[in-house]
Each structure stands twice: as structure tokens, then as C-alpha cells.
């Protein structure tokens, strides 16, 4: 058992001021500690520590938890609590801090959190922020709560910064460049001018309250900024002008309630009451094409798909010409070196260009394609990840918090789950490869996402035990301390797994129950999926659940695509709650033949699902674009 001696300093930095306790905003706590081993010798090296905050000294459940990989030198370490996992406690009552090192029990006793001097209570009601005071600040530095605040001087560049909290009074954002704006609650008037979104991104921005000041969401806002999936609710006199089809549209509370800003495009509002059918389009019929599809949305808001061309044994990319992919599409063959392109997975890099992981079956290697333009037509970089073993199948790619790709994949020689941490955006140099799990035959059907703590989380199949497993990395490179959890061992389960992160920051996985031939989900109750994971049968009976793909809809609930093998149809489910345990809407999207294998799902910029999949009857690549959030033909509200 290690001994922990800690020195605690509590303050929240907001332009050198502190949030008042009567508001609850995200903040950080600077924390120093001293740790020795059982012999009393100070620790040195990198260790996994878990920090938990409670409102009682003994027992109870943690109100906040964060797992961190910490460098310790001569027993001493220093971190900021709340830096990765948002810390939004009011600190208007006593709190205690619990610390766990590696697999030890939590330290005893817990530490009482106290503050320094008058640091907690500082008056920020009339503080004006200039470009100088904003320079270099991050989300922890700039979080205000329940104060009238003059922001007319926000004329600087807030690169990679976040604005969060509740605001009342006048808000005049005159120029926010490359900012990420999250969860703004307006209880008063606000001037959100068209210049506000110049190069900025609204991510999950929640506009609510009774204010009537959202008077300008002009075409410039929507064109030059991404307001997706921001929500509005309440009554606002909003005009969206400058649209080609309608010069001005006023939206009342019924139109606004529960809708995303993407849904408030004038063209959508005008046409929203016209019953429509889901649009099914064959997008590539040049030979036998369309296996191993993977779909995402480009920076222009249009879908892009990677897939395998069976005829030429090539990797191809489809860049859609519109949100439905039914016109002006561009198809490019980006790798035709022997047999390449199976198990493709696509994402968008920080430069806005696609990056794809896939399998080189001829050489038995993992390959990475970094596109040189949005349609992957020129200046592409193709990188083989060389190995003496046969590896690279069942790949899944994502972008880490450092902006570099990470890939999970299967090594067939040793039958292990492996992980690639790319050293640059093209994965062409300084890569780090780690074996994640080598216990038995493991690693097929892998799917990767980035957890709310900034570290990768991977769902995959344990072939030896026929179980669904999760690997939760404890650092960005998954190089040590990775937690391996079996989360479903009820029969033969875990094939075709697909993972995403819910609005609560916790993973949810869709997968195939081979024993019962059902579609299932596993909704994790913590970052590691270590306890109380909810296992749900989503669709049964029949032969259902192969080729699953999961994402989160603009409504905040999971949407899943999968293959109905009994009827050879593409199906989808819009979940009724976070775990898909009730209120689900199940739809057959394509029943035209043997359709739905190798399916992949994403959310379009209009808030409606779009699916890529293989038409086995005609050996073509197809796209299904939903007509509404429920993917029901000719459905509309009265």
C-alpha cells in the first residue's frame, strides 16, 4: 500500500478571478501531492491515479471522478483537477477528496477540500475582457456564471477556447475566431451578431431561457460557422435570411422546441411539413463494389465514404455532391496496389481532409491513406505500417486529442488486439505500436472512440471466450495501464461491435448476440465499463444484428444501423433512451433485395441519419438518407 501525503490549494482561474459559489460552472483545482511506497521511499515514474470528490468523509458515492496518468518525481506531483473531466461543483458545502494509486485501495482518510483566503468570492459582475486578457486562455480560464457581463471587447482570437456557463445581461460577441462555444444559457437579452461565427464552431451549444434577444441568426452565421448540433428552445423572433429559396423565415416557439440549428435552415423549415420518403441511391455500380464501407461527414457538410471494390481489389472513396448523395458525386480509386481496401475506416483529420485505415491483404499489413484534398483525388499519402506478422484487419480509426490519428486493429499471426498511435497526420513517421490485449484470441471486430477523459476506448471480440470486451486506455498512446474489461459473456456475443460516446461522456456499444441472433447494446456506467453496464436486447427475434454501426443523433439518443439476415434487409433503430432499453423506433430502410451488409452510419448536417452499405444482390454501393429523424416514410407532425 502506498502512502499519500497531499498539499491542496483550491482556486478557480477566470481571468485571474474566481467564480462565485452561487453559480455552478466548470472550473479547475490546482493540486499537489506527495506519495511514498510501502517502505517509505518516495515514488518515481509514471503512475495511474484516480481522483474522486465526495460530499461526505466516509462512504457514499463520488460526485466527480477523474483517472489520470501522472509523472511523479521524488514522490511529488502536481495536476489540475477538472482539466480533462469537467468539474462543476458549487463548493458551497464541504467536500472531501479521495485518491487511489494504481490498484491500491482508496487512501484513508479522505482529504477535506478547503479554499485559500477570499479566493472563492471575487466580484466579476462588471469585468470587461479585452483581447489581451483573452490571449491563450482555455475553457477553465474562461467560465462565468450568473453575472451580467459586458463582452463587447471580445475582439481577440480564442483559438481552441471554450465559453461555458450561464450569462445574463447584454452579450455582444463581435469577433470570435476559431472558438468552440459550449452550453450557453441566456436569461436576458443578447446580441449574437453575424460576425460572431467567423471561423468559429458551436458544439452542443444549448440556448435556453426567456430572453428575446436572439434576433440575428443570419445566413452569414450558418454559412461561415458550424452550429451543429446546437439546440434552441423557447420563444424567439428569429429570422434566417439570405437563403436562396426563402428570403426570411420567422420561427415561433413550436418550430423551435427541440430542434437543432441545422434543422432551422430556411429550406428545411419551409419544406418540413411535406411528407417525404427515405431516399435510396445506388452511388457506385462500376463492377462489384461496396464492401467494408465507412462513412463520415466532411468539413463542407457532405458525406464521404471509403469502401472496397471487389472487382479491382482496390480502395475507393465516394465524395457526395449533396447531403443525400443523389447527384454530383465524385468516386476516386486511391489505392490499387494488389488486394487493398478491406476493413476500411474513415475519419476527418484536423486539416479537414479524410484519413483512412484499411487492410493490405497481399502483404498482410495495416495501411493508412491521408487524402490530399477533400475528394481524395490528388496528393494523397499512402503509408504501409510494416510488420513481420500478418496484421491490419478489423481496423477502426479516430483522431486523438492531440490531433493525430489512432487506430485499433487485429494481428492475425498472434491473434492479438493492437493499437497504432500515429506520429504525424499521415502516420508516415514516428508511429508507436502497442499490443493492447494478448490474452487468448482477441481483437477481431474492433471499434475505437475517444472517451470524455481524452483517452481511447476500444470495443472488440474475445474469440477464445466468445465475449464482448472493452479496452480503456489510461494515456493517449495506450502504452501502459490499459484496463481490459469483459462486459458481456452471456453466450456467444461481441461480433460486429461499434462504439461511440453518449452525451453523458460514457461509452455505448452495439453488437451481435450470436447465440440468440439478436442486436444488443451495452451502455457503460463509467469510463471503463467496469461496473453496472446495462446489457439490452434491442431487436429480436429473427437473425438480427450483424454489421452494426452506432452514432448519437442530434436528439442526444443513439441511432443504430444493422443487417437483418433473416430477410436480407438494412434496418435501423432510433433509441428511445440512452441505453436503448425502451421507446425504440425500429425501421426497415431497404428491403429491395440482399441489402445492408458492411453498413456504416453517421449524422448529416441536417440532423438526419445517412447510411452507406453493400447491395449484395447487384454488388453495388448504396446510400440511404432518412427523410426525418425517425426514418419513417411520409411521416410528418400535424
Can you tell me the residue ranges where pLDDT is under 50 for at least 5 consecutive residues? 1-24, 115-272
Strands, count: 45
Mean pLDDT: 75
Strand count, sense and closure of the main sheet?
A: 5 strands, parallel
First-to-last CA distance: 65 Å
Number of structural domains:
3
Strand order of the largest sheet: 8-9-10-11-13
What is the count of DSSP helices, taking H or I runs of 4+ residues? Answer: 4
Structural class category = mainly beta
C-alpha geometry? globular
Describe the protein in words.
This protein is mainly beta and 638 residues long. The chain has 3 domains: 3-112, Immunoglobulin-like, CATH 2.60.40; 131-271; 279-625, Neuraminidase, CATH 2.120.10. Helices cover 3% and strands 43% of the residues. The strands form 12 sheets. A 5-stranded parallel β-sheet has the order 8-9-10-11-13. Strands 4-3-6-7 form a 4-stranded antiparallel β-sheet, with no helix packed on it. Strands 18-45-44-43 form a 4-stranded antiparallel β-sheet, with no helix packed on it. A hairpin with a 4-residue loop joins strand 32 and strand 33 (467-472). The protein is globular.
Throw out a few tags for this protein.
single chain, 638 residues, mainly beta, Immunoglobulin-like, Neuraminidase, five-stranded parallel β-sheet, four-stranded antiparallel β-sheet, 4 helices, 3% helix, globular, disordered N terminus
